[in-house]
Amino acid sequence: MARKRKPANNRKNTTFHSAKEWLRAVGVAVLALLLVKFLIIDLQSQAGSSMEQSILQGDVLWVSKYEYGARLPLRLMPQSWVNTMFSTDTLPPVKQLPYARFPGRNKPAAGHMALFNTPAMHHLPIDKRPQKVKRIVALPGQQLQMKEGVLLVDGQKVEESHLIQRDYRMQTRNIVIDEDFLQSHGVREARKIRGRNNYLLPLTNMQADSLKRTSGIRSLEKYISHDTTAIMPIWGTKAAAWTPDSFGPLQLPFKGMQVVLNAETLDTWFHLLVYHERKKVSLRNDSVFIDNRYQAQYTFGMNYYFVLGDNRHNTSDSRNWGPVPENHIIGRAKGVMVSYNKNARWLHKIRWNRLLRKL
Asked: Is 186 left (phi over 0), alpha (psi -120 to 50) or beta?
């Protein structure tokens, strides 16, 4: 008996229906991935050395956006449109949407490693500024100071992570400081400095103690920077004499904090008012005007956080570009998804001991 052939129209309808279902499935999957990336978790690769030993070059971090609550979009207009329609030589005239976040599990806390947009490069919209990961060391409303490399918050010495690195000045007795020597002590670099057999090395306290007991080391001392040009004077003229190891005291603003405004105090708050609170500020006959209205006081609209790199003398952080406003914070770096060593070969490129490692 001859087999009946399906009409061509039925075959076309079946193919069309199958393709439609596949497209729908792909669309749902893409939408789900975008929602996860936007609301819950994202990945961030680490290229610099500012957070060693805590985070290594080649680490791919997982960043929890749910921890602090995902930040809502700050702009409706793409950056390319901004560049076409407006001059971006100064502050971008494009209007930002009001800052808001979804509810999160926790608030940023001291010791957290946060992913944020750098509060610099003010000609760019916030979400287009470079992203960095640093450690939060002081919270809104707290007073921060550093004396000879010792961090103080509200007058109390901060017990820091054992992974914090600082530069040490090392003098040797004619021993060879090569790659093998550095690897044997877990040190990543040694910079030759002025003087015979003198080097500068970034070390943790544990590494420093180990090196002090090594034969051939004449002396090993903490390096204290006296470079007054390394600190951006965003806190006014009083910050001109600050150095990376000695600065403050400084007060971190919190949302609702009121400050007195006059010719003397404006010097302290001017940078934050203009570049982060986004106010037009002017001084007329010792009186402060904000958005062309006389103001004897100002109430801050955001919380501000102070962040530092764990590799204290080889980093760019709040000492350089000021505190991080809450609208710059993206999420919390929670752990290492995978880690690559680009200098290794084949399977050794993957640092297996860092897979799915919590920070």
From this structure: left
The residue among 11, 18, 44 whose CA lies nearest residue 330 is: 44
Token output for 81: 């449109």
The gap from C-alpha 325 to its chain's centroid, in whole angstroms, comes to 12
Q: Would you say 236 and 264 are in contact if contact means Cβ atoms under 8 Å apart?
A: no
Which residue, among 75, 106, 123, 66, has the nearest Cα to 330 in the 3D structure? 66
180: which residues sit within 8 A by CB, 6+ positions away?
none
* DSSP, residue by residue, 188-225: ---EE-SSTTEEEEEE-HHHHHHHHTSTTEEEEEE---
Per-residue pLDDT of the chain (359 residues; tens, 9 = 90+): 455 555 656 666 677 667 777 787 777 777 777 776 777 788 888 878 889 888 988 899 999 999 999 999 887 765 555 554 544 444 545 567 889 999 999 999 999 999 999 998 888 889 889 999 999 999 999 999 999 999 999 999 999 889 999 999 999 987 888 888 888 888 888 888 887 889 999 999 999 998 998 888 999 999 999 888 877 778 888 888 899 999 999 999 999 999 999 999 999 999 999 999 999 999 998 899 999 999 999 999 999 999 999 999 999 999 999 999 999 999 999 999 999 888 788 778 898 899 889 98
Q: What is the pTM of this model?
A: 0.87
- DSSP for 224-291 reads ----TTSS--TT-GGGGG-BTTBEEEEEPP-TT-EEE-STTTHHHHHHHHHHTS---EEEETTEEEET
Tokens, residue 253 = 């603003």
Question: Are 333 and 67 in contact, with CB atoms under 8 Å apart?
Answer: no
CB 277 within 8 A of CB 327: no
DSSP state of 141: T
